[in-house]
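**Fold in C-alpha cells:**
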Amino acid sequence: MGRLSDIPRVTPAMDRRSAARILDLAEPRGSRRLAVAAFAGLLAIAAHVAAGEGFPFVAPTAGSSPARAEHLVAEHAHMKRLMAVGAVAAMASSGVLAQDAVQWRVEDGGNGHWYLVDATPRNWASASAAAEAAGGYLATLTTGAESAFVWSFMHPRSPTGTAWLGAHAASGDCLNPLGYIWVTGETSAFTNWASGEPSGGFASADCALQFAVDPVQTNLWNDAPASWLQSSVVEWSADCNSDGIVDFGQIRAGELDDANGNNIPDCCENGTLCGCPGDANADGAVDGIDLAIVLTRWGQPGAKFPEADCNDDGAIDGVDLSLVLGTWGACP
C-alpha cells in the first residue's frame, strides 16, 4: 500500500529506463577542467548577448575554435550525465523510487491515467483535499473497464478493502443513485452500485462514494458517511503541455522537472517551454549543431526560421542561445 506522503520529491525524477538511456550515450574524451571552463565561457557569452551587447568576437586561437568549444561543452555535458547516473544509483539503493502508483496504459486499452491507493485514513473531504494537493483528484470512474482496473489493485492495497472515490452526494440526497457528482465535473451514464445501494443505512445526510466492503461483490460501489476514515484512490490525468502524455508519468520518468514536488511540471507553473526546447534540429540531443543553427540564423525572423526560434517568440536572439546552452546534452 502507499501514501501520498511517500511519493518521492526528487528533481529531476529519473527511473532506470532514463538511466539506461544515459549509460548508452557515447563517452567523449577530454579534460574535465577545461570543459568546465568552456561551459562557463559559453554561459558568459549567453549573458553577454542576452544583455543586448551583441555576440562577442572570439579570436581563432587553438584553445577557442568552434570545434574545440563544442568538444569541451560536450565533455561538460557528459560529466553532468555521469553525476545524474550516480544520483539515480543512490536513489535506487535508498528505495526512494519505490511507489505504488500504477498507470492504466493506452496500449492495454486504458486512458493513460495514473492511480494510487493512499492508505492514510481520512474523511472524504480531507482525502479530496490531499489528492488535489498532490496534483490529482479522487478517482472518477466513468466506465466499467476503468472501475474494474482500479478495483483490481485497490482492494489488496487498502487495509479495509474499501477506499473513497471522487463523488459526493449532491444536496445530501444519499439515496439517489444518480445524485452523486464527480469532483471533476465529468458526466457519465455509467454507475456500478452494489445490490441495494445506495442505501443510506446510517444517520447521516452527508455521504460519499466508496468501493463496497463485501469481497463477494467485487468492483461495486457503496455509499458511506463522508466522515468515515478510510483509504482513498487518487487519479492523475493532467496534461498541461498538451503533448498527449499525462504529466505525472513524465515527472516520474525524469522527462519533466518538478522542483516543488507537487506533481505539476515546473514548465507549466512558470510559463516556460516544456521538454527539450534547445533541440533545434529535433534529433534528440542539444549539441553543437543546434548551437550553429541558432548562431547562423541570429537576428532573423522566427517565422522564417522556426527551427532556430527555440522559445517561439518570433525572434532568434539571446533567449534562444540561452535555451540551447541551458539544455545542453541528451534530451530526456
